[in-house]
């Protein structure tokens, strides 16, 4: 026999609180039993009580749930359970209408051992590597001299002191923006991610350093968290990882642009050493001085060599030689021109003599005359004229007018 459906709520017919609580409880109960993985943020064991209260937190997000378990369940699965430990539990969500709260009821709790944690980290390492988060070509170079360094570390920690002291020892004027966060425990990852976002959005920060001292594998687990690795990968600002000692290798070391073996090593990587740079500058200046002196000496010797040559030692010699050559060329040109003029004069005289020998004037000078009619026709025979014709008689010197009789 089916139960009648509860009519839908409306402004005129609202549901009572108990109905809403019943419906929430029914919907949550549909999820059933599930396996849950998380980190124990708090344990409450009341003396004489058979129920233990746990706060289970997501390591990668600021979320937590209350868990209730029988003391026997906790003693059977994780008798040495402490805050900060990773656990896997079989639990069912339950809604308590009287308090309006949601919690998990666990019937089995397993504490994650070191071997399983390392296996999980290895699987996560392969996953992130396959996605390219460890690719060497995407890693950025650190600026030679950052304007400002962002530092994320624990409050008043040895790592903070090492980074600040050694960095300022190397470059006294370096500027820091320090954000102190928990570096272990359930709240470490969310706060580190929030601090990275703040520094990444700060335009004055040129490099971000995440530093922590050494510790056990469990203490360094936040720095192998997937959410933190992806946050480091998404940063626009270069990130330096300085976690633990040289032998420690959390996953953030593979994602960061630069891995420093220790916080002290991070100081050596983010800023140059002022003393070393000053020494390098002095050495460079000395090399430059030697190079300039060598160049000047070489050019001076070259000038001396040029000056010792005859053309520069006695420059008038070259002028005298050219003057002699010019005079010789001018004399030769003068002689050649005179010779040509004389030859041309002789040719002209010979031609003139031949011309004169062949000229009619020469014939006239020997007593002959040229007789012409008025129209200029030369008379060569007597029958070419008639009596009374006027003629022009050309002589060697002058001419006459004559009439034929």
TrEMBL record:
Enzyme nomenclature, EC number: 3.1.11.6
Biological-process GO terms, alphabetical: DNA catabolic process
Compartment annotation: Cytoplasm
Domain called OB-fold nucleic acid binding: residue spans: 17-110
Record-linked CDD domains: ExoVII_LU_OBF
HAMAP family from the UniProt entry: Exonuc_7_L
Protein name: Exodeoxyribonuclease 7 large subunit
Species per Swiss-Prot/TrEMBL record: Actinoplanes friuliensis DSM 7358
Protein encoded by which gene: xseA
């Amino acid at each position: 026999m089916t139960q009648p459906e509860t009519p839908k709520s409306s402004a005129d017919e609202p549901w009572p609180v108990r109905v809403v609580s019943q419906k929430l409880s029914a919907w949550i109960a549909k999820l059933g039993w599930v396996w849950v993985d998380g980190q124990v943020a708090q344990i409450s064991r009341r003396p004489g009580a058979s129920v233990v209260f746990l706060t289970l937190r997501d390591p990668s997000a600021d979320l937590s749930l209350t868990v209730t378990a029988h003391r026997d369940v906790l003693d059977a699965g994780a008798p040495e359970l402490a805050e900060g430990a990773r656990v896997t539990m079989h639990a069912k969500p339950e809604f308590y209408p009287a308090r309006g709260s949601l919690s998990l009821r666990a019937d089995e709790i397993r504490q994650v051992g070191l071997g399983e944690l390392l296996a999980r980290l290895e699987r996560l390492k392969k996953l992130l590597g396959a996605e390219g988060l460890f690719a060497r070509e995407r890693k950025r170079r650190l600026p030679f001299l950052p304007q400002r360094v962002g530092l994320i570390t624990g409050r008043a920690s040895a790592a903070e002191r090492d980074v600040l002291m050694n960095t300022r020892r190397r470059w006294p004027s370096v500027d820091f923006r320090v954000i102190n966060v928990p570096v272990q425990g359930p709240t470490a990852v969310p706060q580190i991610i929030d601090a990275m976002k703040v520094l990444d959005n700060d335009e004055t920060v040129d490099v971000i350093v995440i530093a922590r001292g050494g510790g056990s594998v469990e203490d360094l687990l936040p720095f192998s968290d997937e959410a933190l690795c992806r946050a480091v990968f998404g940063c626009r600002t270069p990130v330096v990882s300085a976690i633990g000692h040289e032998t420690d290798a959390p996953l953030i070391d593979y994602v960061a642009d630069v891995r420093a073996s220790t916080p002290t090593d991070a100081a050596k990587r983010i800023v140059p050493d002022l003393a070393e740079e000053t020494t390098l500058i002095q050495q460079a200046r000395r090399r430059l001085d030697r190079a300039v002196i060598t160049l000047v000496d070489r050019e001076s010797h070259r000038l001396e060599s040029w000056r010792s040559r005859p053309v520069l030692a006695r420059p008038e010699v070259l002028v005298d030689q050219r003057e002699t050559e010019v005079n010789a060329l001018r004399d030769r040109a003068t002689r050649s021109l005179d010779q040509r003029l004389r030859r041309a004069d002789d040719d002209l005289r010979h031609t003139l003599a031949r011309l004169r020998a062949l000229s009619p004037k020469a014939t006239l000078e020997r007593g002959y005359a040229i007789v012409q009619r008025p129209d200029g026709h030369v008379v060569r025979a007597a029958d070419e004229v008639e009596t009374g014709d006027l003629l022009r008689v050309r002589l060697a010197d002058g001419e006459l007018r004559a009439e034929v009789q």
